Write the structure tokens for this entry.
Amino acid sequence: MTLAAEVKKLTESKPFYAVAGVGDYAVEKLRELPSRLEKLQSRRGELRDTALELPVKARAYAVQLPDRAKEYAEAVNARAAALYEEFAARGRRVVSRVSGDAALELEEVSESAVPATAAKTTPKRAPRTTKTTTAKR
């Protein structure tokens, strides 16, 4: 199978779109990071008080842990499946938005990346030669 066919097969798969969607989401969240850090810094005192209450809350949750863990695992499983679908859809949008130029560039690269063995086995046409006639004496 050619490199172009392999690339096309890969780029038309749901996991590829999910990865593209995750990457786009990560970029979006990284852009939000400076403002989120400012908010957290302004809430420093509130967060310190919450941290002091954690040991008491942890003991109370420990009693309920087995039942809550099962519920949580089921919820995480359902949410992970939904996120996968969301990221795949987001990735499809991202890929379709940027695929115009990128697809052309990828096609050019894949065509120029012909393995040396394939280039040797490709039959080449012999150059045309013209017969010259010699004058009779």
